[in-house]
Design goal:
With about 400 residues, the chain is mainly beta. It is about 0% helix and about 45% strand. The strands form eight sheets. Strands 1-32-31-30 form a four-stranded antiparallel sheet, with no helix packed on it. It is globular, with a radius of gyration of 20 Å.
Length: about 400
């Protein structure tokens, strides 16, 4: 286990390296540890100036993107940086807030970058220069400038294409294979857009956002073949789309009544197993529960009695569930009932020298990850690596 600087995102594992993006003092730091032992390998800092409008922490929210010898981070103030995996050598950096006129979002930049072939793709959501005089937090008065999604040359950082007349959300771009083509999907502030990943040509959009000023989109679109599942917790609920290269068709969508809505994702992305979708539904305690719905219809098959939010990671025919309070559970992927195999309270787990509990720190808002039989979990203060191979 190791202490982690001010931040929200879990790290990324590639090879035998664990990459953690965090804030230390007035710097955003990319720190790299040996994934099996936690021994430090290298770290590099970049100065950052950011103060959260709502009093949340001032560190990065992203997870590093790693491919080959490139590791890309996306800081809370819009610094997009590409470094060498081997030694952290700086390859290029872009101040996207300055370059594209980004007006500070409620919680800063909350998206992760996507590496695809020779591109680095990031949600930007800039605005024209005249909007810089708008008071903080008044996003209903801010206008977009066609940079919802921007692709950068992976080698140089130069812009390759831009698309989407929308502001940024807290989701992240992802790919989908449709009709023999690779598209990039982005759930931006106002809804979903689909673009050709090579040319950046906008193919279609689907409006999806609650009307209230403070509503946000945060989950990453869930892709199952040519189906795309979207969800939010403020007003709309969920929708299942059947998509083609040319457009989308609604398979089903939730009614207006919140009590009748099948699923309402907040910050955690749900997970699909076979024809069933599992995840945390609801905005805040005590409005939240872990539930399972039938993907094809939205029918709720079960919901548990917890009233706090959680995130899931699928491992074989089980889910690892991390509650925001620090309860870690192993459950079966059973669509008929909640079947808990085992539980572990991370807040009481002896992790220090001599078995002393330092506490990982509530809240646990980042989904866990697994690599090479090791489970990585973070709280607000520490990251822990658990060996699952024995």
């Amino acid at each position: 286990s190791t202490e982690v600087g001010t931040s929200y995102g879990i790290g990324a594992v590639a090879g035998n390296r664990y990459f953690q993006h965090e804030r230390v003092g007035d710097d955003e730091r990319l720190r790299v540890l040996a994934a099996d032992s936690g021994n430090p390998l290298w770290h590099h800092d970049q100065e950052v100036s950011y103060s959260d409008l709502y009093g949340y922490n001032n560190g990065p929210r992203d997870t590093p993107a790693v491919d080959g010898d490139d590791v890309v981070t996306f800081g809370v103030a819009g610094r997009l940086t590409c470094r060498s995996v081997e030694d952290g050598r700086l390859k290029w950096a872009r101040d996207t807030n300055a370059d594209f006129g980004v007006i500070q979002n409620f919680f800063g930049v909350g998206s992760s970058a996507l590496i695809h072939d020779d591109l680095v793709i990031a949600m930007i959501g800039g605005s024209p220069s005249r909007d810089r005089a708008i008071p903080p937090g008044m996003l209903d008065r801010v206008s977009p400038n066609g940079t919802a999604l921007v692709a950068f040359d992976r080698s140089t950082g130069k812009e390759r294409w831009r698309v989407g007349d929308d502001l940024a959300s807290y989701s992240s771009p992802r790919l989908i294979e449709v009709d023999g083509s690779t598209l990039v999907l982005l759930l931006a502030r106002s809804g979903l857009l689909a673009a050709d990943v090579q040319t950046g040509r906008l193919l279609w959009t689907y409006p999806f956002r609650a009307k209230s000023l403070e509503s946000v989109n945060a989950m990453v679109p869930v892709v199952i073949g040519n189906l795309v599942f979207l969800s939010e917790c403020y007003e709309i609920g969920s929708v299942l789309l059947e998509v083609t290269r040319d457009g989308s068709r609604v398979v089903w969508k939730d009614p207006d009544s919140r009590r009748e809505q099948s699923f309402r994702a907040h910050w955690a992305t749900p997970v699909v197993h076979d024809q069933w979708l599992f995840g945390s539904s609801g905005r805040n305690e005590p409005d939240s529960d872990l539930r399972c719905i039938e993907l094809a219809t939205g029918r709720v098959t079960w919901s548990d009695s917890r009233r706090s939010r959680c995130s899931l990671m699928k491992v074989g025919d089980h889910f690892i569930v991390l509650d925001e309070s620090g309860l870690l559970q192993l459950i079966k992927t059973d669509p008929s009932e909640l079947d808990v195999v085992g539980s572990l309270d991370l807040e009481s787990l002896p992790i220090g020298e001599g078995g002393v509990n330092f506490g990982l720190g509530r809240p646990y808002w980042a989904a866990p990850i697994i690599s090479d039989g090791r489970l990585y979990v973070r709280g607000s203060r520490r990251v822990i690596c658990l060996d699952l191979r024995r």
